[in-house]
Design a protein that fits this description.
Oligomer: heterodimer
Number of domains of chain A: 1
Largest interface: A-B, 69 and 66 residues
Largest sheet of chain A: none
Strand content of chain A: under 5%
Distance between the termini of chain B: 21 Å
Shape of chain A: elongated
Number of helices of chain A: 4
Number of domains of chain B: 1
Number of strands of chain B: 2
Chain lengths: 124, 278
C-alpha cells in the first residue's frame, strides 16, 4: 500500500467534509433567516419535551415541507445535509480502499456504512 | 421572550460555547448542552438534539486542519469507528430509557472528568515500540512528520482501545456530545499513539460517531429546526474562530479559566439532576 495513495484519500475526504458542511450551513442560514422573517409569535414551549412536529421527524416529512416552502423544513433539510456528509465520507472510504486494493479496510468501511444505514432506517 | 430575541441570545451563547470548546479541546457540545438546560431552561432532550447536530458540523468544519497537517490515521480511525458507531446506537437507545435527571447527572460527571483531563497532562512516558501482533495484522500503524523527520508508530492494546471507543460512542449518543476527551484517552493513553495523531484522528471520528445517533434523535423528535439553527451556526462559527486563535494564544491561562467554568457547569448539572430539576 502506498503512503501517497493514503494521503490522496485523506485529502479527498477532507475536501468532501468541507464542501458538505459549507453547503449545509448555507442552507440552514437561509432557512433560519426566512424563519425569523415569518415568525413573530411567542416562543414555542421548549421547556417540556413533546417531540418535534412530525413533519420534522423523517426525511419524507422534511422533503414534503420543502414543497410547501416551509422555512423550518429548509433548516431541517440543511441538517439532513450535515448528517449526509459523514456518510458520504464513509462511502469515499469504501471506494478509496477498494482502489488502493486494501480489502480489509474496504470491508471495515462497508461495516461502518451498514451500521450508519441501519441507524437511519430503524424506527424508534 | 419572542422568537427573534431568543434566537439571537442562543446564537451568541453558542458562539461562546464553540470558542470555549475549541480552546479547551473539549468540543462545543460539552459546553452548549448545560448552558441551554441551565440558563435557558430548555428540555434536556431538545438540548442534546441541537448539540449533536452542531457536533457533526464542527467535526466536518475542522477537516481543513487535519488535512493540512497530515497527522490523522484514517485506517485506525475507520477501524475504531466500528466501535464508536455501535456505542452511539446503544447510547441513543438509552436516552429514551433513562430519565432526563439521570442523563444530567452523567453529563455533570463527564464535564468534571473532561475539565480534569484537559488540565492534567500525564507525563510523556516513552512510547514502547515493541510490535503488537494484532495491530500489525490489522495494519494499525503509520508515520507522522516530526522535527527530526518521519516517525513510525504501531498501535498497542488494540482490543482495550476498541472497548473504550465503544464507551466513547455510548457517551456521544447518550449526551449529544463528540466525547473527544474519551477518544483521545483511548488512543493516546491505551493504544500509545502519538498525541497529535490521537487528537486529529479523534476529530476525524467524531462526525461519523455522532451521525450514528442522529437517525434516532431525528425520528424521536429531539431535533427542533428552530432551536438547532442558532446552535449549529453559532457553535460552528465559534469553533472555527477558536481553532485559529489556538495557534497563537497563550493557552495555559485560558485553559485554566475555562476549566473552572466547565467544573461549575458540571457541578450544577449534577445538583439539578439529583434534585430533579432537569
Amino acid at each position: 500500500m502506498s503512503y501517497r495513495g493514503d494521503q490522496r484519500l485523506e485529502i479527498a475526504m477532507g475536501r468532501l467534509l468541507q464542501i458538505g458542511v459549507t453547503v449545509a450551513a448555507m442552507v440552514v442560514l437561509v432557512g433560519g433567516l426566512l424563519y425569523l422573517k415569518h415568525s413573530t409569535g411567542p416562543l414555542p414551549n421548549y421547556q417540556q419535551f413533546h417531540g418535534a412536529p412530525t413533519a420534522y421527524e423523517s426525511v419524507h416529512g422534511i422533503l414534503g415541507g420543502l414543497g410547501r416552502f416551509d422555512s423550518q423544513s429548509l433548516i431541517a433539510f440543511g441538517i439532513l445535509l450535515l448528517i449526509a456528509t459523514p456518510i458520504c465520507r464513509v462511502i469515499f472510504g469504501v471506494v478509496g480502499f477498494s482502489l488502493l486494493r486494501d480489502r480489509f479496510y474496504a470491508a471495515v468501511s462497508v461495516t461502518v456504512l451498514i451500521i450508519l444505514i441501519l441507524s437511519l432506517v430503524s424506527r424508534r | 421572550m419572542n422568537i427573534l430575541s431568543f434566537t439571537i441570545s442562543v446564537f451568541c451563547i453558542s458562539i461562546l460555547a464553540g470558542l470555549l470548546g475549541a480552546l479547551t479541546g473539549l468540543g462545543g457540545g460539552v459546553v452548549i448542552v448545560p448552558v441551554l438546560c441551565l440558563a435557558f431552561k430548555i428540555d434536556l432532550h431538545y438540548a442534546i438534539g441541537a448539540s449533536l447536530v452542531s457536533v457533526i458540523a464542527t467535526s466536518s468544519g475542522a477537516a481543513a486542519a487535519y488535512v493540512r497537517e497530515g497527522f490523522s490515521n484514517i485506517r485506525i480511525g475507520m477501524f475504531l469507528e466500528i466501535a464508536t458507531t455501535l456505542g452511539a446506537l446503544f447510547g441513543a437507545y438509552l436516552t429514551a430509557k433513562i430519565s432526563g435527571n439521570w442523563i444530567g447527572v452523567i453529563f455533570g460527571v463527564v464535564l468534571l472528568y473532561s475539565a480534569w483531563a484537559s488540565l492534567h497532562k500525564p507525563p510523556a512516558e516513552p512510547k514502547t515500540t515493541q510490535p503488537d501482533s494484532l495491530a500489525i495484522r490489522l495494519n494499525c500503524r503509520g508515520s507522522y512528520p516530526t522535527q527530526s523527520g518521519k516517525e513510525e508508530y504501531v498501535a498497542q492494546h488494540v482490543p482495550t482501545g476498541f472497548g473504550i471507543m465503544f464507551i466513547a460512542g455510548t457517551l456521544s449518543g447518550l449526551l449529544g456530545i463528540g466525547s473527544g476527551a474519551v477518544k483521545v484517552l483511548a488512543m493516546d493513553q491505551v493504544m500509545k499513539l502519538p498525541f497529535k495523531v490521537s487528537t486529529t484522528t479523534s476529530n476525524f471520528m467524531i462526525g461519523v460517531t455522532a451521525t450514528a445517533s442522529a437517525g434516532f434523535y431525528l425520528s424521536r423528535g429531539y431535533i427542533l429546526p428552530g432551536l438547532s439553527m442558532p446552535v449549529v451556526l453559532g457553535v460552528l462559527a465559534g469553533s472555527l474562530v477558536g481553532s485559529r486563535v489556538l495557534v497563537n494564544a497563550h493557552v495555559r491561562t485560558l485553559r485554566l479559566v475555562f476549566s473552572i467554568v466547565i467544573v461549575a457547569l458540571g457541578a450544577e448539572m449534577i445538583f439539578n439532576g439529583l434534585t430533579g430539576r432537569l
